[in-house]
Design brief:
2 domains; 202 residues; globular; Glutaredoxin; 4 strands; binds glutathione; Glutathione S-transferase Yfyf (Class Pi), Chain A, domain 2; 8 helices
Length: 202
């Protein structure tokens, strides 16, 4: 398999951590979604977005959720970190939904600040995005069962939350309201000592 995209993208990182935890051998092509890499990336993903995964059968999958679904089926339900069904799956997917919401708002704020000159930032929109990101992560924090998000075992909810949280902390302007998430912070501290997380830290 070939994973396309840099670990600076939290969506690439959640896939990279999962590949490592599943013990799947793969090549890493660290293409960026901007600059000189863009035409090369567009030849792989028409949207010129990361991540993409090229399977051993030569199929190209885009969007991290699609890729994770493939990897879960590739390793099978015994090993998959997203439960296959039942309430356990609903719980993990609900946690992931909050985490995705939090990081998407954080990325939208990052683009607003990174892609436009400061005098063109729409401050009310930016403040709303930063608030929504905070609200998403804080709701996730409150839902944490601990010691991992869904209880006693690490699941995909933890992998995604840590990749997203690390990005949101890095991207958040210092004058934005602080996100108060002691449970996520504790999970991130613990997870980031594990090789799969440490090796993919941008
Ligand atoms: N929903 C997608 C989001 C992927 C995404 O937003 N990737 C960003 C990097 S973090 C990207 O490639 N942005 C470039 C663009 O959209 O033009 C996923 O889960 O993979």
């Amino acid at each position: 398999m070939i994973l396309v995209g840099r670990f600076g993208s939290p969506f690439v990182r959640r896939v990279a951590i999962t590949l490592r935890l599943y013990g799947i051998e793969h090549e890493h092509r660290p293409l960026s979604a901007s600059g000189d890499d863009r035409p090369k990336l567009q030849a792989i993903n028409p949207l010129a977005r990361v991540p993409a995964l090229i399977t051993d059968d030569g199929e190209t999958l885009v969007d991290s959720t699609t890729i994770l679904d493939y990897l879960d089926r590739f390793v099978g339900p015994e090993k998959a970190l997203t439960p296959e069904g039942g309430d356990a799956r609903t719980t993990v997917m609900a946690l992931i939904g909050l985490a995705i919401g939090g990081v998407e708002k954080s990325i939208a704020a990052y683009y607003e600040m990174g892609k436009r000159p400061e005098e063109k930032w729409h401050r009310p929109w930016l403040d709303t995005l930063l608030e929504q990101s905070k609200d998403g992560f804080e709701a996730l924090d409150k839902a944490a069962a601990m010691p991992w998000l869904a209880g006693n075992e690490m699941t995909q909810a933890d992998i995604s939350a840590v990749a997203f949280w690390d990005f949101a902390l890095r991207a958040r302007p210092t004058d934005a309201p602080a996100m108060v998430c002691p449970n996520i912070a504790a999970i991130a501290d613990r997870a980031n000592t594990l090789p799969a997380f440490a090796e993919t830290k941008p």
